[in-house]
Amino acid sequence: MSKSAGKLFFAAMALFMALPVIVIAGVALNAKKTLAFPPQGLSADWYLSVLTDPAWRSALLNSVMVAAAASAISVAIALPLSWFLWRRVAPWARFVQMLGFSPFILPPVITALGALSFWATTGFYGQPWTVVISHGIFFVSLPLVTITLGFATIDREIIEAGMTMGADDKTLMQTVIFPLIRPYVISGFAFAFVLSLNEYIVAYMTVGFTLETIPIKVFNALRYGYTPTMAAVSVFFILVAVVVFGLVARFGDLPKLLGAWSKGE
Known about the structure:
Elements: H1 3-27, H2 45-52, H3 54-87, H4 93-105, H5 108-122, H6 128-138, H7 141-152, H8 156-164, H9 169-198, H10 201-207, H11 214-221, H12 228-251, H13 254-257
Helix pairs in contact: 1-12, 2-3, 2-12, 3-4, 3-6, 3-7, 3-9, 3-11, 4-7, 5-10, 6-10, 7-9, 8-9, 9-12
């Protein structure tokens, strides 16, 4: 295949993959309350309604707060676990690491049912903070992967040099280790944030309708008919994902975050 044919093929594939997004964005521009495409008239009111309508705005704020808090919990669990597995090489380290990956490996419905059973048994089902903890545990695998990759990039000779100079573990973490792994920590937080923002089944199983996030709001709105507002919300989520992952790619080491290593490593 020639270079021109290859470029044409990839351009066609990119257009094919972008078609659903183009249709959704066009539907959200309808002047009337219809899901017609091409749009019948042009209006940005459906995009503005996400921010001006109290119900949609509340759901949006709930989603952002849950995603931010859950991502922070995921990082708080993954960082010390990754550090321990990096410093304390042991035969059972791989098993502990797999336990950290297990919430994300299991089907979401299994994790959701487990969370539902746990919170119902403890009597906390429906409390707003239960979805935060559930998401924090469910998405811990993402920062665990990125932070583990970050620790793997550290030259242990640097650590040995610091220890030779009298630095203890706390000093090494603050002055040497954390600055080196900071991009991987931020990337793990970003990945968990985006997925938590879009997650439905765990949120629904843990809080039901007592805390309405955007995904739950969308499914609730379906009972009253389809509106272009739901298309506008979908475009919003797509833009958030593009911006977040774009920043990760711009300021982070994306190939290593995806598990690629150079030949010299």
